Amino acid sequence: QVQLVESGGGSVQVGxxxxxxxxxxxxxxxxxxxxxxxxxxxxxxxxxxxxxRGNTGxxxxxxxxxxxxxxxxxxxxxxxxxxxxVEDTAIYYCAAGGTARxxxxxxxxxxxxxxxxxxxxxx
Length: 123
What we know:
This protein is 0% helix and 49% strand. The termini are far apart. The protein has strands at 4-7, 10-13, 18-24, 32-38, 45-50, 56-58, 66-71, 76-81, 90-98, 112-113, 117-122. The strands form 2 sheets. Strands 2, 4, 5, 6, 9, 10 and 11 form a 7-stranded mixed β-sheet that branches.
């Protein structure tokens, strides 16, 4: 069973930055790995992914502000978030095990999830 543990969430002011980390218990080469978020009363949405060949995908809200990366030697996924705004407030989840059968941003395409880390952006 693959386990994912997020860290790095917290409170930040508008315009600030945070870097989230996701420690993955085992190698998951060949699958999609991604960051999702869920704000109160909203659906969980995909915001960034790394595809099996190493190319990345971003949601429109994340493009230009967020950067997804991974350290394969540490089995760790990262999300660097810059220029944060109030609308970025959410619980952020990492996900793994996705396949090309689904759109990368489709939460139903992922088999493994972390417990989430809260990000709160205040003005």
